[in-house]
Amino acid sequence: MKTRKKHPATTLSAHSVRERRAALVFILPALAGFLLFYLWPTLCGFYYSLTKYNLLGKPRFIGLANFAKIVHDKLLLNAIMVTIEYVLLNIGFQTVIALGLAVLMQRLTKSITLRGMLLLPWLVSNVIAAMLWFWLFDYQIGFVNIVIDALNIPKIPFFGGEFWAIPTIAFVNVWRHMGYTALLVFAGLQTVPNYVYEAASIDGASEWRSFSSITLPLLRPVLAMVLVVTVTGSFQVFDTVAVTTKGGPMNVSRVLQYYIYQKGFDQGEFGYASALSVVLFIILAGVAFVQLKMMRANESDMA
Where is the ABC transmembrane type-1 domain (predicted)? Predict the structure, then answer.
């Protein structure tokens, strides 16, 4: 009786099919979560942006009326300007401080304990961090103002002052995220070969010249990723504002996300709030695209 030999290509194909099935089994939970918790709500948001909806009845299709209303919304313009102010403060300070911490960690210490301590604020939830600093910065009983008063310096209305509200909110978020951002940059620094610095040292390059001509260009892909994540996250700031200022005083801290929340849950305009969310989505997509182009992401001067 003749036995049929298996062709090598047939065996390889069967193995490949098994691998693909196994991969599909592992991917399915994440894929289901993405479809259920990200894609489906996004599609629903786009649909509700074309309706008048207050949760009490069925949504009524009104076309682009919500987007036409956005053009004449002066409060929206104020919310966008407040958000941009917060984003600039948050990104500027967070990036500079994180870069400095990462360089110091690389040059001065390799202590894992120190890296863990830097990550601790990031492990605290946004709400807890906001409550902690709200108590510390309280005008009457806050520890910081007690110390300031003891030094015969006028107390500072951190969350209650028109000038101080947004910088203080930015400070809270910089404190919470700078350790995590520093570790991302530190991981990028580990990919820079030492021989590059050694060659620069032999050529007589100063520390600043090595940093500006070697470190920063080689960190471009990491910095691009950090900036995109930080900027998109900053545009979505909500919980710190909700816990501390609730958009006040005089709307000086009413960022875009909090304005959308007020329109939807305080005023029951879910259709209009969805249209505002679509605008925020377009802004974030545009900002991320421009950032990636400007930073030439995935490209490094090492190439």
Answer: 80-291
Asked if residue 158 lies in contact with residue 137, where contact means CB atoms within 8 angstroms, the answer is yes
Q: How confident is the model over 169-182, as a mean pLDDT? A: 92
Q: What is the pLDDT of residue 12?
A: 56
Quote the crossing angle between the two packed helices 74-108 and 220-235, to the nearest 10°: 140
Class of residue 171 by CB neighbours under 10 A (exposed 0-12, middle 13-18, buried 19+) = middle
CA dihedral 124, 127, 128, 134 (to 10 degrees): 130
Residue 225: band (very low, low, confident or very high) from pLDDT cuts 50, 70, 90? confident
Q: Give the other-Cβ count within 10 Å of 92's Cβ.
A: 12
Contact 199/209 with Cβ under 8 angstroms? no
Phi, psi of 48 (to 5 degrees): -65, -25
Across 115-119, average pLDDT: 80
Tally of CB atoms within 10 A around 63: 9
> CA-to-CA distance for 100 and 16, rounded, in angstroms?
47
143-155 burial, b for 16+ CB within 10 Å, e for fewer? ebbeeeeeeeeee
> Chain-centre distance of CA 111, in angstroms?
27
pLDDT digits (tens, 9 = 90+) for 31-49: 999 899 889 998 998 999 9
- Bridge partners of 136, per DSSP, are none
